[in-house]
């Protein structure tokens, strides 16, 4: 009898070499895909050029490095079991191709490679950003299937030239030589292997020296020498002025004013620059939205991944707390969730009076159109300003109002998008100022430029509405961008931070254009110096501002040292006078904010950046910005014992606080009130604006029979968000159970005022009204009762 035996032969180095070569060819295919996308978007002029050749060279180096790193594991697993080593290597290489594909996708959207900044974002942040920036499409997955097939195809193809591969000896020396050769080529983000770039960035970040080498306990603290550079330009009144900040998402200088590369899509702002104090060479200190509020309103250092990301916020001063302490009403208005980037925690630490965010818009306001994944960041700019004006009430005290717009953010879907697309086409057809490359970029990004047009209109409408308010004549408007929007190609690495800065007001004596360079760090000390000189103000004697007085010189000059944080966890850029240090290179800044690389020794500016990193890390990690006894408002986060934290972490390990709320709610429904309250306490310590967690706390108190405490909680919730139906339901329930149905009388006015249409609220109002009728309402409630009867009749 003949017995056939299947014998598994161990893979040799020849098979391993075939995998590495196939991996290289697959990387080259991914590079071709990258260059095709960039060419289609108008970012590059050609697909196959010197840049592409350099990309191939860098892929060769990366493939050689991977070959060196995994040859030992390949042999190890192959010795354990035949073919195990080859399967292990194949799987690793597919994962690396997947990584490269994802990172190339990120680069073709943002035009900057993803590096150590990935450590600054948690899973929830990344997921939300992906969903609300255009969604997750099938194209990357389709490309992955294609690339995997190509990888396997190349692997099979290499079998046809075994005899050549067998002559590659010694193999490791060849790989090492290839890798070392690529170390001397000129690497740029466009032609670098994106996986290698991220790995290198992460390694550098982990090895980075941020040691603070000084014995000074509070290195930023200094005498508050107030230099009033603005006062001469204003006709200030006897009453303190209102101050309105408008932070326009993505508004870079490239879109605004004379000689803007992509000008013509913000006509109202362009006109406003001619009526304002206008700085055309201003810098945002961070390249993303996470940093604008601490920099612009607090002149605060960055921390490791952004000031608002700090686990424990250090003692600090901001414009919010100082002006509130001087009689101002403080508020922030935005169409997105205020919990994103922990902004709500930061604002509440400054005892802010009011926050308007996504949760407080009624149904009559329309969300920004959803993207392909059905996600929306929140309410677009016109709706934001409309809502703010609807709740506007004249105050006896001055106001500090801060607005943050949304529409000029990915996925760039303005309401009535077709109308704005047509306007973009119309502007392109009528204008002869754009070169062919700029014209192509605009044509390929109609959503972006249509969003700019929409946002510009929204700002125009807002200021027109504000002019009808009695406070307009004594209001100062500060308008700037948080950073330059990313998906439109940038001239250089400094463009990311280059934003317009305007101070517009009927109080200004005459407009002026200023071309000297200042930054968001300089705004707070400048405004406070002007106010304290004119008015009786309580200003700290010592401050720790990162900036100083704004430079009012009309001609271009740079007299300041300005640190810049490109992304979370990426502090690589620094301006010192006309020198710009970025990623190890030194440039000279020209008067139009162009940069030219120089041969100047970089040690001095590199040392300045290193010293700043040490101070930045020390003061934020050790709580050494200002002393504790200097803080105006000390609002500490809820504290938990070690035992409590063990239990909390056993129930909730991550950053999805909505899931944690669902867990807390289930505990409450099961009657375990103490555990539910503990979990809601933790949620609110991390996300103070989580209104559902607050309502659940109130309901638990009501279920336990503490109706007074429950009603207090619900009334506080109403103060924070008077448009949320569930608060009214909870409050009406607690008042009904406690027999305190008289609460429906004042509550009814609030229900009408906020246009609450919920059938459940209507039912509970009717229930409370019937209880009042049974016990006999007082005569002075007859009119109110008649209104309630009419309200119930309409509802039914």
Automatic annotation (TrEMBL):
Chief localization: membrane
The organism's place on the tree of life at top rank: Bacteria
A GO CC term assigned to this protein in UniProt: plasma membrane
TM stretches of this protein: 20-40, 52-72, 84-109, 136-155, 167-184
Subcellular compartments: Cell membrane
InterPro entries listed in its UniProt record: Alkaline_phosphatase_core_sf, OpgB/LTA_synthase_biosynth, Sulfatase_N, TPR-like_helical_dom_sf
Bilayer topology annotation: Multi-pass membrane protein
Keyword hit for Plastid: no
Pfam families registered for this protein in UniProt: Sulfatase
An example molecular function term from Gene Ontology annotations: transferase activity
Sulfatase N-terminal domain residues: 241-530
UniProt KW keywords: Cell membrane, Membrane, Transferase, Transmembrane, Transmembrane helix
Identification of the protein by name: Phosphoglycerol transferase MdoB
Lineage of the organism: Bacteria, Pseudomonadati, Bacteroidota, Flavobacteriia, Flavobacteriales
């Amino acid at each position: 009898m003949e017995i056939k035996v299947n014998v598994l032969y161990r893979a040799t180095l020849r098979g391993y070499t075939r995998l590495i070569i196939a991996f290289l060819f697959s990387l080259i295919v991914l590079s071709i895909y990258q260059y095709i996308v960039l060419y289609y978007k108008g970012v590059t002029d050609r697909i196959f050029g010197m840049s592409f050749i350099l990309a191939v060279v860098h892929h060769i180096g990366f493939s050689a490095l991977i070959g060196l790193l995994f040859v030992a594991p390949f042999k190890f697993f192959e010795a354990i079991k035949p073919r195990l080593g080859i399967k292990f290597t194949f799987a690793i290489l597919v994962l690396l191709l997947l990584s490269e594909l994802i990172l190339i996708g990120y680069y073709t959207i943002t035009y900057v490679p993803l590096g150590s900044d990935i450590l600054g974002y948690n899973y929830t942040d990344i997921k939300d950003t992906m969903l609300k920036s255009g969604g997750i499409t099938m194209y990357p997955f389709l490309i992955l299937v294609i690339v995997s097939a190509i990888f396997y195809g190349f692997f099979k193809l290499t079998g046809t030239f075994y005899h050549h591969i067998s002559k590659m000896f010694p193999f490791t020396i060849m790989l090492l030589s290839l890798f070392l050769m690529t170390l001397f080529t000129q690497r740029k983000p466009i032609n670098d292997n994106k996986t290698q770039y991220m790995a290198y960035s992460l390694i550098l970040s982990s090895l980075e020296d941020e040691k603070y080498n000084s014995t000074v306990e509070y290195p930023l603290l200094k005498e508050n020498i107030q230099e009033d550079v603005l006062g001469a330009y204003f006709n200030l009144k006897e009453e303190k002025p209102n101050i309105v900040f408008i932070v326009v998402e993505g508004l870079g200088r490239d879109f605004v004013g004379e000689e803007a590369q992509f000008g013509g899509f913000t006509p109202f702002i362009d006109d406003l620059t001619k009526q304002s104090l206008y700085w055309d060479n201003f810098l945002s200190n961070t390249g993303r939205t996470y940093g604008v509020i601490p920099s612009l309103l607090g002149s605060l250092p960055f921390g490791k991944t952004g000031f608002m990301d700090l686990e424990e916020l250090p003692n600090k001063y901001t414009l919010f707390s100082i002006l509130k302490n001087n009689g101002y009403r403080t508020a922030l208005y935005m169409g997105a969730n205020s919990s994103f980037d922990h902004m709500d925690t930061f604002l509440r630490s400054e005892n802010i009076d009011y926050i308007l965010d996504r949760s407080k818009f009624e149904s009559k306001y329309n969300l920004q159109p959803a993207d392909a994944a059905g996600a929306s960041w929140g309410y677009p700019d016109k709706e934001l300003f409309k809502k703010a004006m609807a709740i506007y009430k004249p105050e006896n005290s001055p106001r500090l109002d801060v607005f943050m717009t949304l529409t000029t953010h990915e996925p760039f879907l303005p309401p009535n998008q077709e109308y704005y697309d047509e306007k973009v086409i119309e502007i392109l057809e009528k204008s002869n100022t754009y070169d062919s490359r700029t014209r192509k970029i605009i044509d390929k990004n109609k959503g972006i430029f249509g969003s700019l047009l929409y946002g510009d209109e929204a700002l125009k409408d807002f200021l027109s509405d504000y002019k009808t308010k009695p406070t307009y004549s004594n209001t100062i408007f500060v308008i700037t961008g948080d950073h330059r929007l990313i998906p439109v190609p940038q001239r250089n690495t400094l463009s990311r931070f280059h934003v317009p800065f305007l101070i517009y007001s009927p109080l200004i004596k005459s407009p002026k254009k200023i071309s000297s360079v200042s930054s968001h760090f300089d705004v707070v000390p400048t405004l406070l110096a002007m106010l304290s000189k004119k008015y009786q103000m309580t200003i700290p004697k010592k401050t720790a501002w990162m900036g100083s007085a704004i430079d009012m010189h009309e001609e271009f000059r740079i007299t300041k040292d300005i640190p810049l944080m490109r992304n979370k966890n990426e502090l690589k850029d620094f301006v010192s006078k006309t020198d710009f240090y970025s990623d190890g290179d030194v440039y000279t800044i020209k008067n139009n904010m162009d940069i030219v690389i120089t041969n100047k020794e970089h040690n001095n500016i590199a040392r300045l950046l290193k010293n700043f990193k040490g101070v930045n890390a020390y003061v934020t990690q050790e709580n050494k910005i200002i002393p504790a006894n200097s803080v105006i408002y000390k609002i500490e986060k809820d504290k938990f014992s070690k035992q409590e934290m063990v239990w909390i972490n056993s129930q909730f390990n991550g950053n999805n606080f909505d899931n944690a709320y669902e867990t807390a709610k289930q505990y409450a429904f099961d009657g375990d009130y103490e555990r539910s309250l503990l979990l809601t306490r933790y949620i609110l310590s991390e996300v103070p604006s989580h209104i559902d967690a607050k309502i659940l706390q109130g309901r638990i108190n009501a279920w336990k029979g503490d109706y007074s405490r429950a009603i207090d909680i619900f009334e506080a919730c109403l103060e924070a968000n008077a448009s949320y139906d569930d608060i009214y339901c909870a409050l009406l329930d607690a008042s009904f159970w406690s027999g305190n149905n008289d609460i429906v009388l004042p509550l009814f006015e609030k229900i009408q005022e906020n246009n609450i249409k919920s059938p459940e609220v209507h039912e509970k109002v009717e229930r409370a009204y019937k209880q009042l009728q049974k016990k006999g309402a007082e005569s002075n409630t007859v009119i109110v009762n008649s209104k309630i009867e009419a309200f119930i009749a309409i509802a039914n």
